[in-house]
Amino acid sequence: MPEDTNSTSVVALPNPVPEPEQPSGERVLVVDDETYIIDLLHSWLTFVGFDVRTATTGTEALVVAAEFRPQLLVLDVMLPDIDGFELCRQIRQGGERAGVVFLTARSGREDTIAGLTVGGDDYISKPFSLDEVVARMRAVLRRTAPPVEVPDPAENGLFRFVDLELDEVRHEVRRANNPIELSPTEFAVLRYLMRNAGRVVSKRQIVSHVWEYDFAGDPRIVEGYISTLRKKVDRIQPPLIQTLRGVGYSLRLDGRANPEGHR
């Protein structure tokens, strides 16, 4: 169903307008049932160098995605047939590893976590700026791109903590030898925690190392990723992802942190 938005409240145009960029070849599928949003994002993303296709329903998006094989999808949550969360879930079930950025007027914590749980990589609330959308998209594309650096041969790109193992090269995570399916951003957050196992890292540090740009959005998005990681990683006991309230998060075994805290 359409969201109650208008052109002046939904989008902030860049000022000044930059020069057009050379095409990057990165394929992006934008899915939204509002003509204004579709037209504006298609024009702007093409202007800054992306190869863009669009769809106005979830059903159409599935058809376009199968043919176009986008590297990133920008999905409105409220669509006329199936919502963006369900669309993302179906795309992920098909084995697609493209980045997913949700774009919506709904910004509650429950909606944010729902989007991340089904495999989303970022969440942008309306009103939004075109510059912010492009920055978020490029950050997600960096996280979903194949690694360009060869890991240290001595490490083989492997991180281990207790019975948790993360393989950077194969992009695989296992706990007690059980595979864990993670979205690219979930993988990046967990990798940062594993690189700093035993240390406490703040939300600001996680944003700086995972999002890799000047994040101006709601810091609760970090809480959302921690919440979804707990559901996947700590379904096997003992819990490893701990919270120190007011300080940050840590991968550790001791009980000094609060494993139930989600802030």
Describe the structure.
The chain is an alpha/beta fold and 263 residues long. Helix content is 37%, strand content 20%. The chain has nine helices and 13 strands. It has helices at residues 7-10, 35-47, 58-68, 84-93, 109-117, 130-144, 184-195, 203-210, 220-233, and strands at residues 11-12, 27-31, 51-55, 72-76, 99-104, 122-125, 128-129, 158-161, 164-167, 172-175, 178-180, 241-244, 248-251. The protein has a five-stranded parallel beta sheet, with helices on both faces. Strand 9 and strand 10 form a beta hairpin. The two termini are 32 Å apart. The model is unreliable at 1-9 and 256-263 (pLDDT under 50).
Mean pLDDT: 80
Classify the beta-strand content into a percent band: 15-25%
Number of strands: 13
Radius of gyration: 19 Å
Which strands sit side by side, in order, in the main sheet? 3-2-4-5-6
| Most strands sheet | 5 strands, parallel
- Cα(first) to Cα(last) distance is 32 Å
Given helix and strand content, the structural type is: alpha/beta
**SSE ordering:** HEEHEHEHEHEEHEEEEHHHEE
Q: Residue share in helices?
A: 25-40%
